[in-house]
Amino acid sequence: xxxxxxxxxxxxPKRHDxxxxxxxxxxxxxxxxxxxxxxxxxxxxxxGRAAAALHVAQPALSRQIQRLERYLGxxxxxxxxxxxxxxxxxxxxxxxxxxxxxxxxxxxRAVREQARTERIAIGYxxxxxxxxxVRELRHRHPDAEIAxxxxxxxxxxxxxxxxxxxxxxxxxLPLAAEDVFTTPLYxxxxxxxxxxxxxxxDRASVTxxxxxxxxxxxxxxxxAVWASYRILGAGVPPIESYEDKLELxxxxxxxAVLPVGDxxxxxxxxxxxxxxxxAPPSQIVLVSRxxxxxxxxxxxxxxxxxxxxxPPP
Length: 313
Hints:
Elements: H1 32-44, H2 47-54, H3 58-72, E1 77-80, E2 83-86, H4 88-117, E3 119-125, H5 131-140, E4 145-151, E5 166-171, E6 180-188, E7 190-195, E8 206-207, E9 215-219, E10 222-227, H6 229-232, H7 242-250, E11 254-259, E12 271-277, E13 282-289, H8 295-308
Helix pairs in contact: 1-2, 1-3, 1-4, 5-8
């Protein structure tokens, strides 16, 4: 028969080996550090050995286990002359504690792996300005590592040898179609660049047919320059840079056909631009290695199409 007090209420004996069933009495969430301490003590079945493995003092470890037990409202470990042993509650909690720690490790690993993959090097060439695309990509992925690299004629292999992960350039490119994935971004009409005083300088426009006999001195990643043999009857010397090309045009030794978006020639007062009719437009594309698993390439593609697909006139 249950013992009653003088008012007739049953008296329940206190259990001195258990904590009150009051969950989260510290007003905090369950700490993974305490869970890990518990699993180490359970593995060693001895507070001293567990403390040595964890590089903490044994009294401090005991206090942390007591904190965990208070949080859960029950005793997890019993001390014995030989060390410690799990209580029934401890045996119930142990596999769940191990699963919790494993889930935390997997979550950390996934995040770190994602952080490693959020990295991209973007190559760009000649007169192209990719600032808007890079800014949009950084806005969408603020934690990503985004680098840009200007490429010259001598760096046509930068994409193939993985110095860059993606390339924004003008088509066509000296890359095998089966090796790359190409995304068209936008097109620009072309213009003729000639020195002041040139016979074509005062024209409202010229046609592509009028320039058909000019001989090109191209660079794979630069705008081609055409030598005006009909005027000079002489060849074009080796060209090392874009500035050399403009100097060649300004000196009257060549003419150039550039995309209208290339404003560099307009910085020189000794050069004149004339619209070209009937010439195929300059195509700006984004190119990446086919089957590259880097997710930032797709992110760049989306950002570039959002802000570059319709450039201002």
